[in-house]
Structure formats: C-alpha cells, structure tokens
C-alpha cells in the first residue's frame, strides 16, 4: 500500500510536472488523470490478487509498473504543444523558460550570472591529442590545435554573451568539436573586451587585432572561416563589414548562429516572438502570477526597458542603426559564402532573415536554416536534441564544402 502511494507520487508527480513545464494539451492532462484512476482501481480490485499473486508475482508486478511508466512517457511525448518539435527539444526549451523566470534570473540576472562565471577564470584543459595555447596580443586569444595535424585551415570563433559575458569553457569545448568536424583545422578563440567597462567599438577593435595577428602568423584569408553566435555573430558580420570597407581580403566562409544583428530591435519577431522566446521573451503565466495588478501593456513596456538597458551597455552613445554596431543594417556586397542558423521561437529570428535577404540581394552565396520551435543558440547542447544534432551536421557540411 505505502509502496504504491510512493510510486504514484513519484511517477505521476514527475509526469504532471513535465506536462506543466511543456504547457501540454488538455487531452494530456485528461489522460493522466484517467490513467491514475485506472491504476488505482486496478491496484485495489480483486483482479490484482488474481493476476499478480502466484508464480512469477514479483516479475509480473515489475512489468506492470514498467508498462505504466512507458504509457506515461508516451502521453507526455504526444501532449507537447507542437509535434514538429522534438520531445527533448521541447523539454529543454521549456526548462530554460522556467529557469529564466526564477526571481534570481529575472531582469539582468541571467547576464549577471554569465558575467560572473566568465570573470572566475578557467581551469579548462584540452583533451588528449590537442593543445590549447593562450596568447596575449593586446587582447587574450587561445589557439587550439590537433597534435600532428597538417591542416592549413583555421576557424576563428567569436563567442556570444550580449557583449557583457566574457569567454567561458563551453566555447573552448566547442572549439574541439569544430576542429573535429573540419578535418582537424586549428581554432582560435578571442576573449574580447566587454561592457559595461568597454563600449563600442572596443570588441570590434579587438576582433580586427586578432585578425591581423592571424594573417601575420601565416594563415591566408582563403583558409579561414569565421563563426560566431549571438553577439559573436554580430561581431563576425561587423568585422567583415569593416574589412570589406577598408578594401581588405575577407575570410573564405562565415557562419552565424542566431546572430544578434539588430540592436535597435526593429525586426518584426522582436514583437511577434515576444511570448515564445524562452530566453529573451516574456512568460505570460509567470508575469501574471507575480504581477497580478499590472496590465499587459506594463509588461511589454518593462520588456522594452530591459532590452534597451541591455543594448545600451555595449552601444554607449552610438546610434543603434550604425551598421558596425547593428550589422542587420549593413550592405553585404562582396561577402563570402554564408551559413545562418536560427530558431523560429527567437525574438532575433527576423535579424537572421533580414541579413539573409540583404546578402542574397547582393549576390552572396548564402544559406538560411530555420529550426522549428528552437530557442536562442540551441546548438550549444550538441547532440542532446535532434535539432541541434542536425544543425551541427549542416555546419560540418558547410565547413567541408
């Protein structure tokens, strides 16, 4: 009896919590309640003893409970709001949303936590067979290389973090992944200066400094791929705009993952995806629970204020429509091959779409890959979800074309 109650609390409770997190359909909740009633009735009916007692009783009970858990799992999978998005993708996206809505993570809490993490320093060590050399060229860079590799290719990775978060270990691990999928190319990470201490154009100047160092040390532009996510995607585009405008050679390829290209927030999805984006959007139910007396218009206004304060940290007094600050307003004539990936639930989705259209109109060989229901820089979870796994396959194909 006690074991049965504990079993129901654990497994039905976990199932109910998951349904709540993924904002499951009504049918999912109805089926969960029906299954709980059915399991309870069966446990205390005369059929229980008749079927479960006797030979192999323990095995039969174990199989019964395993079957119930299996049915619970199927119900959770089929109850997700959008069946086009994988179950694991939905789970991770919505857990991010719930974490983002914790009091400590509200406002600039997420950025503050990231900034504190990057300020701690790192004890990361390269895996066996790789070296990671730290070099100070006026700005800290790290050169990851596969031991014994003869590759002449170089990937210049620029990390994201809204220009307020410095280099963190996930990008060092990602450098290893990039090297592996590009036939052992070398990878450079840059720890550029960040706000609020340094404002525009500090990060761009650091990117140019790193680019000059790369060329001075023997790498050719035709062997270099630039890759960046979020603010890093912004800096990849800004750097190429600057190089192009100065009449200098550009890299062979560009990869932008959820680029933050529009610091003015003028794109359509900055509004239409406001309630979808788990990282930079707004949760309707959490807002109304915490701020029951405040109207929805106040909610939207608070979002605008938060976004404005985030952009102004790096922008300073610079016009937000400056293409070197907001490259979505730039001209991509003469740019190299480009790959852009973005999730359809991001407020920054329109940034990627505008960049794509601009590049396409200027004759650039550009690909835009939009992933249904995905959140900001979903690629960072690696092979954990099908969407990210597919995105990395596309990156690998693009790198090796």
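-> sequence recovered:
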């Amino acid at each position: 009896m006690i074991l049965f109650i504990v079993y129901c609390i654990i497994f039905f409770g976990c199932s109910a919590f998951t349904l709540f997190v993924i904002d499951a359909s009504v049918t999912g909740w109805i089926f969960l309640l029906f299954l709980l009633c059915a399991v309870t009735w069966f446990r205390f009916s005369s059929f229980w003893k008749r079927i479960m007692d006797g030979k192999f009783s323990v095995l039969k009970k174990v199989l019964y409970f395993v079957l119930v858990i299996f049915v619970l799992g199927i119900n959770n999978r089929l109850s997700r709001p959008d069946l086009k998005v994988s179950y694991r993708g939905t789970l991770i996206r919505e857990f991010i949303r719930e974490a983002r809505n914790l009091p400590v993570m509200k406002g600039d809490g997420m950025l503050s936590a990231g900034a504190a993490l990057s300020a701690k320093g790192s004890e990361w060590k390269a895996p066996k067979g790789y070296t990671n050399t730290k070099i100070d060229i006026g700005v800290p860079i790290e050169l990851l290389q596969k031991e014994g590799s003869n590759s002449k290719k170089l990937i210049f990775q620029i990390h994201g973090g809204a220009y307020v978060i410095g280099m963190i270990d996930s990008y060092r691990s990602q450098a290893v992944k990039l090297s592996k999928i590009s036939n052992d190319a070398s990878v450079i990470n840059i720890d550029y200066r960040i706000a609020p201490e340094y404002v525009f154009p500090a990060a761009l100047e650091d990117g140019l400094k790193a680019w000059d160092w790369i060329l001075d040390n023997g790498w050719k532009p035709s062997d270099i791929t630039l890759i960046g996510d979020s603010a890093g995607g912004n800096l990849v585009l800004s750097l190429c705009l600057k190089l192009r405008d100065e009449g200098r050679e550009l890299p062979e390829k560009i990869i932008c993952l959820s680029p933050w290209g529009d610091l003015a927030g003028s794109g359509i999805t900055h509004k239409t995806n406001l309630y979808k984006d788990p990282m930079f959007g707004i949760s309707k139910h959490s807002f109304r629970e915490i701020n029951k007396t405040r109207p929805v218009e106040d909610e939207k206004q608070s979002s605008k204020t938060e976004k404005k304060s985030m952009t102004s940290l790096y922008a300073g007094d610079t016009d937000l429509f400056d293409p070197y600050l907001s490259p979505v307003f730039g001209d991509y004539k003469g740019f190299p091959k480009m790959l852009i990936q973005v999730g359809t639930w991001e407020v920054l989705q329109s940034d990627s779409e505008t960049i794509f259209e601009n590049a396409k109109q200027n004759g650039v060989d550009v690909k835009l890959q939009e992933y249904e229901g995905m959140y900001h820089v979903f690629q960072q979870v690696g092979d954990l979800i099908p969407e990210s796994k597919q995105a990395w396959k596309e990156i690998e194909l693009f790198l090796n074309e």
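Residues 56 and 146 are 56 Å apart (CA to CA).
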